[in-house]
Amino acid sequence: MPILLNPNREKSLLRRHPWIFASAVKQVDANPASGSTVDLLDANGHFLARASYSPLSQIRARVWTFVDEPVDEDFLRKRIHAACKLRDTQSVIRDTNAYRLIHAESDGLPGLVVDRYDNVLVLQSTTAGSEFWKETIADILVEETGIQNIYERSDVDVRELEGLKPITGILRGAIPNPQLRITEHELFFQVNIATGHKTGFYLDQRENRQRVGELAKDRDVLNCFCYTGGFSIHALANGAKSVLSVDSSADALALLEENIVLNRVRVPAERHTALEGDVFQLLRKFRDENRSFDMIILDPPKFAPTAAHAEKASRAYKDINLLAFKLLRHGGILATFSCSGGVDAALFQKIVASAALDAGTEATIIEHLSQGGDHPVSLHFPEGAYLKGLVCVKG
Ligand code: SAH
Predict the structure, then answer these.
(1) Which residues are catalytic?
(2) Residue 184 lies in a domain
(3) Residue bearing the CA closest to ligand 1, atom 13
(4) Is residue 207 within 6 Å of ligand 1 at its C-beta?
(5) Mean pLDDT, residues 54-81 taken together
(6) What integer pLDDT is reported at residue 90 of this predicted model?
(7) Where is the domain boundary, 116, 144, 178?
(8) In the chain, fewer beta carbons within 10 Å around the N or the C end?
(9) Quick check: CB of 231 below 6 Å from ligand 1?
(10) 386 in Cβ contact with 340 (< 8 Å)
(11) Mind giving me the DSSP string for 101-159?
(12) Do both 58 and 78 map to the same domain?
């Protein structure tokens, strides 16, 4: 079914960006069903792309293909096969049995996230298009990966914008226990795929946990927003002198304690302390108590989902980074992250720089970090590059 665009609104498609906003649409013929496949035509009626239709969303259509080819089971199989192959052959997956298999737009499959946790796949469908094809996609995933068990975690807020209700539960196979054990760089983690954040674990930080862990040797570490202890356990396994882990979620901290026990061969539990609380308040309390650390990790939740939230988010990032600079000893390391799509790498670096300035400290960046290779970024979809991290040394 054809959708005619307004004059000059084909430009982003010619650059191969996969989104068409409602304002670009001139005319929709025959009221296509939510998630069904439509042809996007320029103002002169020339074919531009084939896309899924989202009648309720501001992002009215998401491109499946820029080629005049059928969008069907074979098409989806090709895309899913390519995504699996990318993980298999580019050595993006090292030392783990948990990684992202499909990263939505960046793998040419808008709205679809699939994470592998050992012998279970966790699928998240966020758009009308991915929802339309969900059952077919589930069958193809079983065929392509040989993994029989799929759990659905389609419970993210953005589904509302597409008129979709939250759905969770077993989609294929049998999953007797939603708490699974995964391995990451020879360390073990309990992941609850039913109740954990995202699909259960912050897979995008895998390489950064290892790198920051190495830098933690012989240091007193404060891990803020620790979740189930990813950075803490890597730091302890790499010889950190002490680690204080802070999170506001009691459930996350309970799993963290399990993870400490799980890694007892390499992780000395007596060097670790967990604290439930609000990082914004605790950093102030530590400042007032004149406490100090050799390393501070800041990995907060998404403060700015879109650019519209950037200003408020910038203030929050500046606040915690400024306090962290104050709490760091001379020569101390700040590993600071932002996963906000609305704050790009350049803005994030500016925020951290102004935090250092206001804290009255010198600091040098020794490393720029980003998401692992299992979260690839299409060159035509820069929004896919959402995770940025800076490793700074306080001068
Ligand atoms: N670094 C973690 C992921 C952190 S996700 C890892 O590698 O696995 C962000 C975490 O921040 C979540 O666990 C959430 O519970 C916690 N959080 C959110 N707001 C908070 C606040 N104000 N104070 C403390 N923790 C908070």
Answers:
(1) 339
(2) no
(3) 227
(4) no
(5) 98
(6) 67
(7) 178
(8) C
(9) yes
(10) yes
(11) EEEGGGGT-TTEEEEEETTEEEEEE-SHHHHHTHHHHHHHHHHHH---EEEEEE--GGG
(12) no
